[in-house]
Fold:
Amino acid sequence: MAQVKNRLTPFFENITFDREDNELILNFGPQHPSAHGQLRLMLHLQQEQIVKAHPDVGYLHRGMEKMAENMIYNEFMPTTDRMDYIASSSNNYGFALAVEKLIDVEVPRRAKVIRMMLLEINRLMSHLFWLATTALDIGAMTVFLYAFREREYLMDIIEGYCGARLTHAAIRIGGVPLDIQDSFITQLRTFLDKLPANIKDYEDLLDTNRIWLMRMEEVGTISTEMALSWGCTGPMLRASGVQWDIRKEEPYELYDEIEFNVPYSDKGDNFARYRVYMEEMRETAKILYQTIDMYEETVKNGQTELMAHAPKYISAPKLDIMTQNYSLMQHFVLVTQGMRPPVGEVYIATESPKGELGFFINSQGGPYPYRLKLRAPSFWHTGILTDLLPGHYIPDVVSIIGTTNIVFGEVDR
Amino acid sequence: MAQHKVNYTQDGGLPVALTSIDKIVNWGRSNSIWALTYGLACCGIEMMASGASRFDFDRYGTIFRASPRQADVMIVAGTLTKKHAEFIKRLYDQMTEPRWVISMGSCANTGGMFNTYATVQGCDRVIPVDLYLPGCAPRPETLQYGVMLLQKKIRANKAGNAQKPKRLM
Amino acid sequence: MRAYTPKDDVQAKSYYTDRYYVAPQVPKQEVETDEVFAADLAALKAKFEVKESFIQVGQMVVYINANDIYGVLEFLRDELTYTQLSEMSAIDWLAKDNTFEIFYQMLSMTKRKRLRIKFFINKGEAVDSVESLFRCADWSEREMFDMFGIEANNHPFMKRILLPYDWQGNPLLKTYPLEGDEFAAWYEVDKIYGKEARDVIGPEIRDTARVDRYDSERFARLGFEVPKGTEITGNEEPNKQDYQEEGGVFLVKKFTKDASKIIDDPQR
Ligand code: SF4
Structure:
């Protein structure tokens, strides 16, 4: 069959191949297997060296902020899943927390513990995924297979909890919808007991691997000033010498009751970021062990509440809805019209696996947010490529994009 | 299919299998469906998971290729946005015949939950689609089943004839 | 009588609001209740005009003059250790009083405090770019330009970022419908096939739940598939769904349950 006609003009890059000043323009993406999604980079090259980089994003812009203005608060929850889809629950949580701060409700302790478990499982999933894909981009196929294997166990646990593998929607405004399933703790413990050995496996494969070191060390160095100026957060900032973790500095949920370290490095290169991710996985395992203990404590103390009690904003438990007239009416109104938070503004930042995930909500007292701004860490981690790539060589592009850990659902929203 | 059985491991005989061209070509085609890595959004992660350790797509002869020139099937895994739409057409045109398209996930099927200004309401507005997989995100099992259905579809077709144009345009 | 639909705000509206409903307020505290913020505000007031300030949900909000913004952010960064610009964007108040509200969300890592700088500009006015103070404003300002059409003075590359360069309209304005205008609806068709293809391809179907079992062009019933374009009568032959052809695939052994090992412990 002849090619179906279309009106597309060839890319300008394809026409002016070689320019007078000997600069080659290379188009990278938007569909490139190692761009971690739909990133398009326009690279100006002097031979193999990059002199100017121009990241072009927006190929996954789906209009989430606009959607938020047309949706009641609870309706928007599943949409947040699709932001950082590697760790969906952390987005759910960021949004839920922002709304909770707006309507000023306190979540019961048991729900907090379950949320923390979900968040940390998501962090592990995200880091494992990061390791898998970055290693694959650099050529370490084995690590990819190993890390995906471990990730599948976590997926099973999460699936047992909320029924979805990827897009969890596991957290509600005001708490969590369900208690964890019976096998959750045992499965999680089995997994965590194996995790150190697994992490050791990855490190044995990578840490002293010559190729890995050559492509990681002294490549993509971000200085502290540059990281701050570009709004880097999370592991990107911590690898550049700032020990800043929102869980530690502005604790939310019960993170202030938990012992954990914040790994950081002052090297700022790819390898430092890799090390930070690996250490964070260990810390996360530590946190998860503690949350298991906390959960068992709540069971002992008989704290079974899972949703906050705030009749104006949050539906009553199912039992009440089925038995009490007032709860049923209130549930009906909340589902059909949606909650109406007070007039005001809130910006709440949480530490998602990628960095500071912030939700800015401006409410005008209606059931729809007047303005919702999603502050996604990856947006600036992509922006930094503008300043970071020049001076590097083409093969470094892939490893730098890999270690920035960008997810395009979140960059473009 | 007529087969003349020769126990070639023992008798040292030549393996001979008699078949029709259609069957043998389609057998080859259907068992080595190379897919274009076209992970656009969340569904792309599930597509990767199907290729990774647990679900192991290689069993079906499905290997992900990064170049459209080497791919037989384009798995549109994720949200197709208006900004991206032109590239899907470019890539589809670059694929060699015969080519197939699997639209994975509700976003690629109909725009899904993103009923907004920036999302193409179904990738079949731009390229012809052979198979739609429901789900948000479809599980890797769904994708596997989809690939098996596609294999069936390929086997049911004649090998020699050029594919009929699938779209009015 | 037709219901009146306002043209300046086409976003979803609640269909019922109690006549006497008065929305409560998120409480605001005086800045003096927090020492750190009080000191910062005093320092800020000494150099710039502060129109209004309060603390809401633990963060200080300061309203300033639009043309002070560069100075204020520089002062905050260099003197008051607010070294990070977490976020900036705009809020559309065009329907109310023809203004945009711009906010800058700042973070001080040493004080562990966040504050928000805000100001209003009229429609058509530009803001001063703070790109040379915080590089991240480069992209944020482009995003603001893309979404609201607010330009930034002295910005090195004032172009759209999320939407294509040839896009028309600013999606986050309240006058822009969620599903886009006509330009958005036909964008990909016009671009790829040209305007005359509109008739062939047809309008977008925005109802995602739509299923029409009599339309064999777009829908197929699993188990009752027919070739594309066939008239559906309801007496279609059932189409048996199986995983493999009868007798297995050429050269591939049929899977037998007894001869295989079943792994029933997912945890190995
Ligand atoms: S169908 Fe769902 S999971 Fe797939 S890309 Fe769309 S939103 Fe993401």
Q: What stands out?
A: Chain B has a mean pLDDT of 80.
